[in-house]
Amino acid sequence: MSPRIAIVGAGAVGGYVGAHMVQAGHDVTFIDGWPEHVEAMRKSGLTVTHLKDVAPFNVAVRALHITDVQGLSKEKPIDIAFICVKSYDTPWAAAMIKPYLAPDGYAVSLQNCINEPVIASVVGEDRTLGSIASSITVELTGPGQVFRAAGKSGASHTVFRVGQPDGKISKRVDQVRELVALTDSALATTDLAGERWTKLVLNVMGNGVSACTGQKSRDSIADDRIRQFMARLGSEAIRVGQKLGHHLEEMFHLDPEIIARAGEGDAEAKRIYDQNRLDSISKPGGGEHRPSMGQDMVKGRRTEIEFMNGLVVEKGRQVGVATPANALLTEIVKKVER
């Protein structure tokens, strides 16, 4: 039987992935805290558009205000709850949906940062999975409107990586992989922690920079000084991840060691890194996207800086790796935020 699915936080990623599940015929309930967005979904559904190659589509959806969630107690329980809220909202979001999970139901972190431990502390580690969305470039452009600043990645780049904390490829992992694969390319991973840190490095390099400059990715990458600062941010995060024992995957189709050495001033590594980054914005639509934290700043929302660059600083302190660039950026973003 098709599982009952809840999307807790129907923003850019939650709305985008959930819309594809609905399009495929799944039973999906969207829960969100933005009243206008919920009402727009109820009235006109969710509309998904892409920058290129994919025709726009609209799906009729079931949407609940947070105050409506208690009504789920009178319905069949939820089998899979995708947690798609900002990191700072994770504890209450997990606690809110927990009473409505089926006895064998579980929660999936479909979020930017490392939130599986928080979710596990609420629903139990044996009921916690993670799904990483890499370079998905989606934005909630208005109530009921989701835009992806690209086409589908397909075989050129695996967007989703699904795993559970113990590294087992369980039926649950396969089930979630199949669900997110309705959206774009997906694989199951036995190393969720390593995949999460790899994604964290990418977030660390771009999100805070966009938040405090207001720039889209292409503008930051095109600036020689900012591009080098981004390498320094990534380098520190990579060295912390290595010290923590994580296996790091390719980043921007580069070996992480290239980015680490580029940030540390190695001339040859810097040449390779610069060429890669500049090539990425020379393509049509390349970098024409404001990262999620930049979007938050524009909308006057709280950022996730403490869960990204701030986490690198915290973990670096624990393992004895200096992270001055990440510490500085964290403070700058906090100032701009205030």
Can you walk me through this structure?
There is one protein chain. With 338 residues, the chain is an alpha/beta fold. 44% of the residues lie in helices and 18% in strands. The protein is built from 13 helices and twelve strands. It has helices at residues 12-23, 35-44, 90-97, 116-123, 171-180, 192-213, 217-222, 224-243, 256-263, 267-280, 292-298, 309-319, 324-337, and strands spanning 4-8, 27-32, 46-50, 57-59, 62-65, 78-83, 101-109, 128-133, 138-142, 145-148, 160-163, 186-188. It has an eight-stranded mixed beta sheet with strand order 5-2-1-6-7-8-11-12, sandwiched between helices. It has a four-stranded mixed beta sheet with strand order 4-3-10-9. Helix 6 runs antiparallel to helix 8 (224-243). The longest helix is centred in the middle third of the chain and has 22 residues, at 192-213. The chain is globular and about 60 Å long. The N and C termini lie far apart (49 Å). The model has no long low-confidence stretch (mean pLDDT 96).
